[in-house]
Amino acid sequence: MEFSNILRPEVQQFIKDNSRQDLTKLLLSGSPFSDVSIQEIAQQIKGRQAAEKKFPFLLQDGIIFPPQLNLEQASSETTAAFKANLFSGESLLDLTSGYGIDAYYLSANFSQTTLVEQNKNLLEIVSHNWLILNKINTLYLNLDLGDFLEKNDQKFSLIYLDPARRDTYNRKKFLLEDLSPDILEIRNKLFEFTDKVVVKLSPLMDISMLVSQVSGISEIYIIAVKNEVKELLIVIEKDFNQSPTVKIHNLESNEPSLDVAFSTIQQSKPIFGETSEYLYIPNNAVLKSGAFNFISEYYNLEKLHPNTHLYTSTDFIEDFPGRVLKVVPVEAKKIEKGERFNIISKNYPLTPDEIKKKYKIKDGGNQYLIFTQSQKGKIILKSI
After folding, report:
1. 258 and 183 within one domain
2. CB contact set of 266 (below 8 Å; sequence gap of 6+)
3. What's the number of domains the chain is made of?
4. Which ranges carry the PG-1098 ferredoxin-like domain (predicted)?
């Protein structure tokens, strides 16, 4: 793939100068260059826009961006950098390289990296960028995954996969067996070449189902960024036969991480009670783990209701993985029209928008109104 035209200084300057322009208008205006199409320019502008949010380390001269779908599928710099601190060894194999963001960060702790990618153009973009970034000791293989596994005779310290979660019609897939490659199908083959496999999965995957379907899972990472769960990461070890550890992380927050055995999550029993002085709202990574009862046991908190994942205590716990509010009960008739609140609705029949409409209150302000349910019935709490 030839990059010399798109990398000419005047073309690169045009891309930078128009990185804030309306792309629809730009596409209609056509390209000012005879040897670079406006579609190629738009692709680089979209790439720069994505990089500003997802991987700012690529905002430097000489970097080439791939089509939009590859940008969407790539990990963010934040999650990739986090994963880089989890693994190290002699040799890394990324079997689904894609745009290579994860591999770029993971490779920092490996002496040799091998990237396998069936999309020739995409692999050429990655190899070009890594040269610009001075990333060496890398082997680039333009092969189908099946062909590679058939021909390979090397051993690797770690094999990494990010299976495609869309079918040929671009529809999202959520079942393990529907992904490409199917980890269930190739699992045993992978362990001919390594003792450890790491698989990135959608945050919508069911953790209990993963544990039941995939043997050898030693760790399950739930990775959130600013309380939005971005991905699951499972570590599969060749001879591991115990309960996996669920590792809960909310990046770019001050909240503590949490490690808990999956078996403990299953066996924990909650304590129930009515609202006390403090209300505890677990972050979304904790909720994704299903550790609803464990949170009650571990922090000695009372759960409001079996289906209400809110907790209460007379004590303030500073290092709780979520939000802690000091609250008082409030009667619905005492909510004044026009007041501003941040609305939280948990196990309550009305959505936040419906609540705002019913009580004629506005969004915002520094206080919270929590509409929820305890074992005694519906309750409204106000932060103070």
Report:
1. yes
2. none
3. 3
4. 278-321
Q: Is the separation of the CB atoms in 129 and 101 below 8 Å?
A: no
The SS3 call for residue 240 is coil
Q: Are 100 and 231 members of one domain?
A: yes
Residues 85 and 45 in one domain: no
Strands of 278-282's sheet, edge to edge? 271-272, 302-305, 308-313, 278-282, 322-329, 377-383, 362-374, 340-345
Contact (CB, 8 A) for 303 and 296: yes
Looking at the structure, tell me whether residues 98 and 44 fall in a common domain: no
> What is the pLDDT, as a whole number, of residue 381?
98
Q: What is the pLDDT of residue 374?
A: 97
Return the structure tokens found at 187: 């699992």
Q: What is the pTM of this model?
A: 0.94
* CA dihedral of residues 368, 366, 351, 345 (deg, nearest 10): -30
User: Shortest CA distance to 102 belongs to which of 158, 64, 174, 183?
Assistant: 158
Looking at 47, 65, 83, which one is the last position of a domain? Answer: 65
Give the Cα separation of 306 and 342 in Å (integer): 24
* Cα 376 to Cα 118, 272, 325, distances in angstroms: 58, 11, 21
In the predicted model, is pLDDT for residue 227 greater than 70? Answer: yes
pLDDT band with cut points at 50, 70 and 90 for residue 167: low
Q: Could you say which of 242, 262, 282 is where a domain stops?
A: 262
Interatomic CA distance for residues 293 and 332, integer angstroms = 30
Q: Check residue 168 and give its pLDDT.
A: 67
Beta carbons of 74 and 54 less than 8 angstroms apart: yes
Largest CA distance in the chain: 73
With beta carbons less than 8 A apart as the criterion, state whether 371 and 380 touch: yes
**Three-class SS of 167-215:** CCCCCECCCHHHCECCHHHHHHHHCCCCCEEEEEECCCCCHHHHHHHCC
CA distances 240 to 134, 196, 218, 237, 327, Å, are 37, 10, 6, 5, 45
